[in-house]
Each structure stands twice: as C-alpha cells, then as structure tokens.
C-alpha cells in the first residue's frame, strides 16, 4: 500500500495530463516562424520587417490601418476601433497564442485586409507583417 | 489490499474531475438572465473576439437572420465566416432570439442600439458619454455594464467609464 501523498500526486498528474490534452486539442498547429516561412515561400521572397511596419501602421485609402485596432505598439493590447473591445497583442513575444492556428491566421488576414486595403493581402505583404511582428520585443 | 487502494485512488480522481467539471458548467450557467447557458463555442470565438457576446434575446429572429446573411459587410467590417459556422451560429441565435413584445420589433439596420427599448432605457445618458474614448459607442455595453459579458444588465451592476465629468455623472445617475 502506498502512502497518501503518493495517490494525491498521482491524481494531480492525471488532472494535469487531461488539462494538457484539452489545451492541445484547441489550437497550436503552427508557429509564427512557420507562418512567416509559408508566406515567404508563397511570395518567393523573404518577409521584411520594415516594409511590414509600414503596412501595419499606415492607412491605405480606407478609414482604418491595422494599427487602428491593434495599436501602434503591437506588443500591447489593442482596442477595436468601433466596438472598443480589447484585443490581445499581435506580437508573438507578448502573446503566445498569436499565429499558432493556421485557419485563424488565414481567416483574420482575409477579413482584416479587406477592411484596411479593400482587397486581400498578397503573400508578400503577409510575410512582411509577420517579419515585423515577430521582430518586436516587449 | 493493494488493488482496492488503486481502485479507490482512481475513483477519487474521477470524482474530483467530475466535481471540477460541474464547477465550470455552473460558473458558466450562472451567467445571468439574458445569456442562454452554453452558447456555441463558435459564437464566443467568432463574434465575441470583436464585440461583446450580445445575448440573442436582444434582437428578433428576422434581424439575426439578415445579419448572419451579410457578414461580409458587418457594420463596416468584414466578418465573413465559412458556411458551416454561419449556419451553426445563426441557428442558435434564431432559436434564442427575442420574442418578448418590446424585442419583437426589428430595429433600424438591425442594431440593438437603435431599438425603441434601448433608446428609452438610455434616454438620460448624456450624448457626450457615448463619445468618450473609454466607451467609443453604444455597442460597447461593458463600458458601463460590468456584468454585460455574463448577460447581466441591471442598474446595480453599473460603473462610470473613465473620463466622465460631473455633468455626465449627473445624467448617468438620473
């Protein structure tokens, strides 16, 4: 017969393992670096942080830039330009969930580029923005 | 003896898990009067990433139907989704849509904030309050209603948004 602390520890382990399984099932099929690689390969040129910064922070004919909602400092939380809802930081260094789900990356680029540029972004623009965001430090 | 103990350990661990999951369900279900229990995960994920998870009872079914049919032009923003997710969320919204007489009316542009009941409830709020940086507009329920994300909108759960001057506070309390 084992002592009481032993089974307590075992139960705790079991709970931990189940939590991990649940967490893993939710997202994280990719990483920001993999997404940068994907878009750079599609564009056949590497993403460039400075170009990405310009895309991210400037308005391009429309009412909003990326920064209108995500902020000029994407290492900090943003605020939705019309609803005021807080948005988690876009820089992976400040938000471990950013760019870890391929479907989400595609969905948000598709929608938000239309809001900012009135068209979908090119692979090159996405690579540039990713290079910019990945390079940011809090 | 040893086997009995092993079984007991597993039983205890399972019980702890089950109790734990009840706790989570309870915490969720205790959400308040307006938000139905267990909204679809897609609703929280897709809609609530940009704005409050508005309780479906605040709009009539026809309004939800129209709104979900035009997500690519969603109040100035592209909120388009894949067809399966649209159907899932739309079905849930319409099933829980408002039927109470004051919600039954389809507001202009299917905006909750243009409903007659909404305007009447907020008629004494100084127009400058809506324009505060901390509020940004009437759609941001949670700026004042601290229980909004749980579907609680009663007058006891109000807070002043940042930046209100004395005049705005008077109108707010009235």
Task: Describe this entry's structure for a reader.
The complex is a heterodimer of chains A (138) and B (174). Chain A has 138 residues and is an all-alpha fold. Chain A has a single domain, classed as Cytochrome Bc1 Complex, Chain D, domain 2 (Orthogonal Bundle). Chain A is 57% helix and 3% strand. Chain A has six helices and two strands, in the order H-H-H-H-E-E-H-H. Chain A has helices at 4-26, 32-43, 49-57, 66-70, 102-117, 123-135, and strands at residues 78-79, 86-87. Chain A has a two-stranded antiparallel ribbon. In chain A, strand 1 (78-79) and strand 2 form a beta hairpin. Chain B is mostly helical. Chain B folds into three domains: 1-30; 33-109, no CATH class; 122-174, no CATH class. Helix content of chain B is 43%, strand content 0%. Chain B contains seven helices and no strands. Chain B has helices at 2-29, 41-47, 61-68, 83-95, 116-121, 127-131, 166-173. The radius of gyration of chain B is 21 Å and the shape is globular. Residues 22-31 of chain B have low confidence and may be disordered. Chain A binds chain B through residues 1-2, 7, 10-11, 14-15, 18, 63, 79-85, 87, 107, 110-112, 114-115, and chain B through 1-2, 5, 9, 12-13, 16-17, 20, 49-52, 75-81, 134-137, 139-140, 142-143.
């Amino acid at each position: 017969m084992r002592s009481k602390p032993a089974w307590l520890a075992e139960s705790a382990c079991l709970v931990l393992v189940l939590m991990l399984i649940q967490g893993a099932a939710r997202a994280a099929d990719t990483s920001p670096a993999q997404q940068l690689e994907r878009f750079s390969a599609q564009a056949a040129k590497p993403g460039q942080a400075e170009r990405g910064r310009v895309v991210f922070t400037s308005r391009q004919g429309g009412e909003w830039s990326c920064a209108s909602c995500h902020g000029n400092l994407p290492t900090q939380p943003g605020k939705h330009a019309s609803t005021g809802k807080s948005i988690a930081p876009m820089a992976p260094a400040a938000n471990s969930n950013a760019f870890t789900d391929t479907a989400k990356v595609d969905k948000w680029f598709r929608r938000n580029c239309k809001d900012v540029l009135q068209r979908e972004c090119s692979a090159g623009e996405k690579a540039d923005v990713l290079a910019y965001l990945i390079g940011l430090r809090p | 003896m040893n086997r009995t103990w092993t079984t007991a350990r597993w039983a205890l661990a399972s019980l702890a898990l089950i109790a734990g999951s009840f706790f989570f369900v309870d915490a969720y279900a205790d959400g308040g009067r307006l938000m139905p229990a267990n909204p679809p995960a897609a609703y929280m994920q897709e809609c609530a990433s940009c704005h409050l998870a508005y309780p479906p009872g605040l709009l009539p079914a026809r309004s939800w139907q129209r709104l979900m049919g035009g997500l690519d032009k969603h109040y100035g923003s592209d909120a388009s989704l894949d067809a399966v997710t649209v159907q899932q969320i739309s079905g849930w919204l319409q099933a829980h849509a408002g039927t109470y007489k004051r919600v039954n009316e389809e507001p202009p542009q299917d905006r909750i904030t243009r409903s007659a009941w909404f305007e009447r409830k907020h008629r004494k709020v100084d127009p400058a309050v809506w324009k505060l940086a901390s509020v940004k507009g009437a759609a941001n329920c949670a700026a004042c209603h601290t229980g909004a994300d749980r579907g609680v909108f009663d007058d006891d759960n109000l807070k002043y948004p940042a930046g209100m001057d004395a005049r705005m506070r008077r109108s707010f309390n009235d």
